[in-house]
């Protein structure tokens, strides 16, 4: 898919993707030392499978200057910024269920239409699932505000509830200090009123983690996915691939978890189900498989290459080194890649999830997180601990930003993996 066609097809794009134009870069290119690949690129084993495009709905527009004479009349909504510099934010509009538009008329200069009104129903359905999923985490916190007055006993109960939710000592102290200042400034007297202020404090803490995953700046955009065994890594890749394929992106999967046959077979099922291509080698070297996939993605004009890696415990240093090797070889295949290094963490692991983030970040330099299985845990407060650590990490590194949480999951269905919203999370937690 050419860059121009990718830009013009943005009305089909799935919500959690946002595309930048040439004037800006959503990330700094990561360049690693050249390391010879473990094997020369070999021909990928899978064949190309036509991708499916979502059904198009007509949109009234007038033909822009330079379009073919026989093109249908179209009216392009005005934009506040020139098309060459305006970002395409698919997150809020398409993910929320905005109607799809038909293919734009060819034009020498891409024309970006103003976003259509957001449909609230799909996101409201997601909020209800999130609320149900966080019920175990939030029940203990919500009970604190049933007392008769605001006193030390209320704050002590809230401290215990936050610690039980695995928010961690530092994040709990941060939230309590912030809450007390808000209560004093507002002059509140009723405990029930304090809950809304706690929600605001949580939103302020988690807001830096809220960011859109971007694709399209590079072709292909190479995404490396890591995580411990059982975190839901391969399943999350499958869901992400489904959304990309439905957005008419050409996706190539790399089955770099060659140590576990079931993982390769699981990824092949997702590839077949989503009608995308896959590079897989039984018993092959993980770095070699990834190298072949990146080269094949560039040769075939793919939009996205996603590399699934084997599960690793942070304490297995020799295996963590294997992940570093995969990243180095990806850079050998494409000097700007990997463009995203995602870590999938299991919400059930609580504070251990924070330790995983620290260890994998030290080894790979993480660019984003996917938090799964929040529906089966009472430890969802770990996001507060991750947010506080991530903020401190960014403060210590000049020009760095907190590691974002791109997606959170509350179930096994495709629609149960959604983009992260700090306000939605706080509201669902305390409702």
User: Which percent bin holds the helix content?
Assistant: 40-55%
Query: What is the total domain count?
Result: 1
Q: Count of DSSP E strands?
A: 11
Largest beta sheet: strand ordering: 6-5-7-4-8-9-10-11
Strand content: 5-15%
Query: What structural category arises from helix and sheet content?
Result: alpha/beta
Identify the CATH architecture: 3-Layer(aba) Sandwich
**Tally of contiguous helical segments:** 14
Shape: elongated
Low-confidence stretches: 2-119
Radius of gyration: 23 Å
Order of helices and strands: HEEHHHHHHEEHEHEHEHEHEHEEH
Q: What is the CATH topology assignment?
A: Rossmann fold
Provide an overview of this structure.
This protein has one domain: Rossmann fold, CATH 3.40.50. Residues 2-119 have low confidence and may be disordered. It has 14 helices and eleven strands. 41% of the residues lie in helices and 11% in strands.
Short summary:
By secondary structure, the protein is an alpha/beta fold.
Secondary structure blueprint with pairings:
Layout: H1 3-8, E1 17-19, E2 88-89, H2 90-95, H3 121-133, H4 135-142, H5 152-164, H6 169-186, H7 191-206, E3 213-214, E4 221-227, H8 233-246, E5 251-255, H9 261-274, E6 277-279, H10 286-299, E7 304-308, H11 317-333, E8 340-346, H12 351-364, E9 368-372, H13 382-396, E10 405-409, E11 417-419, H14 422-430
Parallel strand pairs: 1-3, 4-7, 4-8, 5-6, 5-7, 8-9, 9-10
Antiparallel strand pairs: 1-2, 10-11
Which tags fit this structure?
alpha/beta, 14 helices, three-stranded mixed β-sheet, 431 residues, Rossmann fold, eight-stranded mixed β-sheet, disordered N terminus
